[in-house]
Design brief:
- With 146 residues, the protein is mainly α.
- Helix content is 55%, strand content 0%.
- It contains ten helices and no strands.
- The radius of gyration is 17 Å and the shape is globular.
Length: 146
């Protein structure tokens, strides 16, 4: 849901293609009433990953959660991000690397808790679970990959 909210605000504020609704809550109401908009579809990760794994061997992929991808772990002696370690392993130039602060939070919007009422959030989470947008669905696809 956080990805949907972030994408909705990014398109509303920075892109020529505008999402449905004057507010994110209006967009969510639209989705839970049966309209499968492109932002919703883009947030349903399990079907997307499944399509890629059907076309390519899953061992060719590295799946890293966004916040982990750009986070440093100095406590564990890790000065590189997960992305930085992959780039280094492949022998590529990282261009100095990027941190989470470089790639996240450029657009401001309210937190989900501030913006979406709990009953509507619950309905949206149920819908995402039904269409492969839950962490559980993603985990099942990854667990059953080769």
């Amino acid at each position: 849901v956080a990805r949907m909210q972030s994408a909705w605000y990014m398109f509303k504020n920075f892109m020529p293609i505008k999402p449905f609704g004057k507010t994110f809550v209006e967009y969510v109401e639209h989705v839970v009433h049966g309209h499968r908009e492109w932002i919703f579809e883009g947030s349903s990760y399990a079907p997307q990953i499944d399509r890629w794994f059907n076309a390519f061997n899953s061992s060719q992929f590295i799946v890293v959660p966004f916040r982990l991808a750009y986070s440093h772990s100095p406590a564990r002696g890790n000065r590189l991000t997960a992305i930085g370690r992959v780039v280094k392993r492949l022998g590529l130039d990282s261009g100095g690397g990027r941190s989470l602060s470089d790639v996240a939070g450029k657009g401001q919007h309210p937190s989900l808790e501030q913006e979406v009422p709990p009953d509507l959030m619950s309905r949206l989470n149920d819908l995402l679970g039904k269409y492969g947008g839950s962490a559980r669905e993603v985990a099942e696809i990854l667990a059953h990959s080769n």
